[in-house]
Amino acid sequence: MIEFREVSKVFHTSKQNEVKAVNDVSLSVNEGEIFGVIGLSGAGKSTLLRLVNLLESPTYGEVLVNDKSISTLSPKELRQMRQKIGMIFQNFNLFNSRTVFGNVAYPLKIAKVPKQEIKKRVNELLSFVGLADKADQYPEQLSGGQKQRVGIARALATSPDILICDEATSALDPETTGEILNLLKKVNREFNVTILLITHEMNVIRTICNRVAVMENGEVIEEGSVYDIFTNPQERTTQKFISSVLNDHISSNLFKQLQASKKGRLYRVIFMGDATNQPVLSNIAKDYNVSVNIINGNISELQEALFGNLVVELQGNDNEIDQVVEELQKQVQVKEVTDHAG
Amino acid sequence: MQVDWNTFWPRIFEATGETLTMVLFTLLFSSVFGIALGLLLYVTREGNILENKVLFNILNVFINIIRPIPFIILLVALSPVTRVVVGTTIGTWAAIFPMTIAASFGIARIVENNLVSIDPGIIEAAKAMGASPVSIIFTVLIPEALGPLILGLTFISVALIDFSAMAGTVGGGGLGDLAMTYGYQRFDNSVMFVTVLLLIVLTQIAQFIGNYLARIFLRR
């Protein structure tokens, strides 16, 4: 649906200085999926997103949308293609001089849709996003969440195949973020719209994305299904993003205390798939003379599958603990925790 | 020497009419030229929708050359051109031409300043929806800047009332001319007071209408 082929974007900040905002990125977004790109500010994700509808043009490489290289389009073809790619923004970017109705009608006017049809379509969309009663209000009279709903309705007006979201929830409070994410999920399911979003919030990725790419310094450093990335992150930056939502690390103080007490050994146990339905730890406690003390952890739902991440202290003699670890490793991932970040 | 007020009132009415003619027609013509020039200046600026460094620099320098020239000098300097365009250098219409030139460049700057304050994100959004540069100008830039633009034009109208008084010196007529010839040159303060009072009333009316219209478009 969207394919980046070895794409780079270089900005010249002055005659000598250049910044590689996007550096040799290859990615493909499949039809019907919700693909997330996460990164800190300055990682290049915003530029990457703008390459999709050619708000920025690639310096090297090419971007394909529906198997068409967009750089080769004429200005007119480009405008027609843009009508098939909806876009929503962190700051909503609504027209202040137009009512809610006028904002949603705008892309249809640009596409020269007849007036009667515009009216019907806009009312349909406003009901879909739950703002049918706000049609005559101006953006400044709306809350942030309502503004983003208008943004979504406006982006969907021309029935696009693709929706690109530029930090769409970053200006919203957590509750409103949840509502907007649900709405995006509904857009994806009901209209089969492929969504490419960028964010710095791992929560957004966990809540709605199927696949994710992690960006750092203009490069994609890790990519995969959200479940794989959450259960088995490779890069340090990815691990940090995951810790931000899973709270899966114990503090250095607690770690020192636990080590000093010398009561037992610390292990990180990761449950995936079938293991989450088995009483793995309590079976161990029954079969061996080792007690299991859960220090920290959580079990969360990812992509409709359960994923557990626990830090446990195994108390008993060393020999038996080794046997327990061996037994556990047959069913789940076990790693000894040797520092507080581990 | 005292004026005969019975015969003088019609002269004041006539002069008020001349002032209004000069101000309104100048406002009309200079709005068209000024807004077009201001838009052109904005869209050709670096990074904007019709970026064109050469055109931008030419316009920018040209506006900076015209604007600092005192109006009374411009009025005289332009008189050969005025003769070609209007056919004469005397009278109300001969005053409207230099006034339009002076006001257009002022309006161009005001328009540009108002456009710069539009959130670039809004323009980006329109672009992302597939709007062409021309439709962005007419459906985004102008409507989004309309409120402050009306206030800017109001400011210009008041300046035009001032210009029209100076235009009196080239035989443009109007209240300013009346104040000068009867009041200043004949030492008749009463005539000057009446005309100045009328100029103040005109200014108040212009400001009131401008504020009222701006409020509608700003919805505040």
TrEMBL record, chain A:
Residues annotated as domain ABC transporter: 2-242
Keywords from the named record: Amino-acid transport, ATP-binding, Cell membrane, Membrane, Nucleotide-binding, Translocase, Transport
A GO biological-process term: amino acid transport
Entries under InterPro entries matching the protein: AAA+_ATPase, ABC_transporter-like_ATP-bd, ABC_transporter-like_CS, ACT-like_dom_sf, MetN_ABC, MetN_ABC_transporter-like, NIL_domain, P-loop_NTPase
Superkingdom of source: Bacteria
Pfam families: ABC_tran, NIL
Name the UniProt record assigns to this protein: ATP-binding cassette domain-containing protein
Protein source organism: Salinibacillus xinjiangensis
From TrEMBL, chain B:
Record's GO cellular component terms: plasma membrane
Family (UniProt): Belongs to the binding-protein-dependent transport system permease family. CysTW subfamily.
Recorded superkingdom: Bacteria
Localization per Swiss-Prot or TrEMBL: Cell membrane
Protein name (database record): ABC transporter permease subunit
Coiled coil: none
Bilayer topology term: Multi-pass membrane protein
Record flagged with keyword Chaperone: no
Organism of origin: Salinibacillus xinjiangensis
Transmembrane segments: 20-42, 54-78, 90-111, 191-214
Gene3D superfamilies hit by this protein: MetI-like
GO biological process terms, semicolon-separated: D-methionine transmembrane transport
Sequence ranges assigned to domain ABC transmembrane type-1 in this UniProt record: 16-210
Presence of the UniProt keyword ATP-binding in the record: no
Keyword annotations from UniProtKB, A to Z: Cell membrane, Membrane, Transmembrane, Transmembrane helix, Transport
